[in-house]
Amino acid sequence: MAGSTFPVIYKEKSFYTPPDIIEKESQSEILKSLLLTWAGCYTKAYGHKVVNRRLKDHIIIYCVDGLGWLELNNKRWIIKKGDFFTCPPQLIHSYGSNNKEPWTKYWIHFRGENAGYYMEMLGLTMDSPILHIGDNVKILSWMHDLFRTLEKGYTHSNLLMATSYLNNILSYINSLVRNKELNKNDEITVEKVITYMLDNINGNLDLDHISAYAGISKYHFVRLFKKITGYTPLNYYIRLKMQKACQLLESSSVKISSIGSALGFNNAYYFSMTFKRVIGQSPQSYREMLR
Fold it and tell me: For residue 110, is it within any domain?
C-alpha cells in the first residue's frame, strides 16, 4: 500500500475498473452523471497507509471496526468504528489504520457530473469530512451486492448496476442524516409528522394543528420540515392527499366530486384544480389514462 512503513497484514478485496473502460463509460448518457470506478474492503488492515495522494475521483470510506486516522486540508481526525468519511477529488489527502486497533473499512471511488452534488447533499466538505452513522446492516448489504456485481466483470450493465448500489448508499445516508437532524433538534421524526398527516388525510389540517403536534413554533417547524423533505408542511400534506386521490381514482368508480369531498375538499372545482396542479392533469384525464 502507498506509503506503508509497517508490515501489510490483512485481507483485501478490491475491484478496480481499468482506465480505458472508465473513459468509455464516462461518456455514457446515464453513467456520466455518476460512475463507480473502484471499490473494495480491507479487513483488520494492519499497516495500511496512504500518504499525500491526489486523485480525480471522490472517495468515500466506511469504517466498520477498529480505528484509523485522516489528514486533509492540514487537519487531522481520528476515525472510529461507525464513521463514514470522504476525500474530495484533486485534494491531497492521507489516511491510515491504527497500529493497535487496525480498522476494517469499505471504500468506493466514484466520479461524474453529479458526484459533487451528492457530497453537498450529505454536508461533507474538506473541513467537515466525517459523518458518524454507526453500525448499519443495510449499507453493508448494498456493498456486498456491489462486490458480487463487479465480480462478474466490467460490462456496461454491471457498472450500471454497481453504480445503482452506490446511489442507494448515498441516498440512504442522506435520509439518515436528515432524520437525525430533526430528531436532534426537536425530538420528533419526519415519519411521525407524516404519519399524523396520513391519519388525518380526510381532514383539513392547518399549520397551527401540525406545528402544535410537533410541539415547536410554526416558523421553526416549517424551516426544519422543508429542509428535510423539500416541501413546506402544508404542501406535503396536499401531496399526500393527491397521492390518495390517485389511488381512489385507480381502484374505484366513485365520482370525482365524492373523492374530493372524502379528502376534505368542500369545493369540487378546487379539488380538480389542485389535482391538476400537483399531478399534471385533471382527475378525469388521470382516470381515463388508467383505463
Answer: yes
